[in-house]
Design goal:
The protein is globular and about 40 Å long. The protein has six helices and nine strands. It is α/β, with parallel strands linked by helices and about 200 residues long. α2 links the parallel β4 and β5. The relative contact order is 0.18. The chain has a single domain, classed as Spore Coat Polysaccharide Biosynthesis Protein SpsA, Chain A (Alpha-Beta Complex). The strands form two sheets. The protein has a seven-stranded mixed β-sheet, sandwiched between helices.
Length: about 200
């Protein structure tokens, strides 16, 4: 069973006051490099990275990791376009894909591996992460749901499918693992809490 990780990194960093969020320093690298390293050190078979708003600035960093670059030319139409771009780039033999946001700096590869282990043990078609009682990303979707993901539009995300299908949740006690950053203050908080 081939499992891919799709790192979503196409956003414009609109609330970062001119900074490219994916290039913020994190543990001796950048946020995007950190997210890619998590995917590559996990038990996943392949890593794809969806770029968009800052593709020209991010592509060299992604390419040096060996991850596969997917450029979402429609990034400005919303989050769903990046999900679609990632799904469409998957190899036909890919059984499942785990969507990881590039702006979750406290995430560990143990979270990704736990989703993979649960999928291999149960073949559950949707497996979400749960952090201190809240479902969040990353989320694994089996191939059975790729067509539905391809039909998402605008700011819709994979959670749209949660209401329509059973979701298995892998729970983690540490809420920091699910923390994402959209503002400079959230980045500073992540540095304080996770580095």
């Amino acid at each position: 069973m081939k499992i891919a990780v799709i790192v979503l990194a196409a956003g414009a960093s609109a609330r970062m006051n001119g900074r490219i969020k994916q290039l913020l320093p994190w543990r001796g690298a950048t946020l995007i490099e950190h997210a890619i390293a998590l995917a590559q050190h996990s038990r996943a078979d392949e890593t794809l990275v969806v770029l968009g708003a800052h593709a020209d600035a991010l592509r060299p960093r992604v390419e040096k990791t060996g991850a596969r670059v997917v450029v979402n030319a429609d990034w400005a139409t919303g989050h769903a376009s990046s999900i679609r771009a990632g799904v469409r780039a998957l190899a036909p033999e890919t059984a499942a894909a785990i969507f990881v946001n590039a702006d979750q700096p406290c995430l560990t590869c143990a979270v990704i591996d736990a989703l993979i282990e649960r999928y291999r043990a149960t073949a559950a078609p949707i497996i979400a992460s749960g952090f201190a009682g809240r479902r969040g990303s990353p989320v694994l979707f089996a191939r059975a749901h790729f067509a539905e993901l391809d039909n998402l539009r605008g700011e819709q995300g994979g959670r749209e499918l949660f209401a329509q299908h059973p979701v298995v949740c892998v729970a983690f006690d540490d809420a920091r693992l699910g923390m994402d950053i959209d503002t400079w203050n959230e980045y500073q908080l992540a540095i304080h809490n996770c580095q």
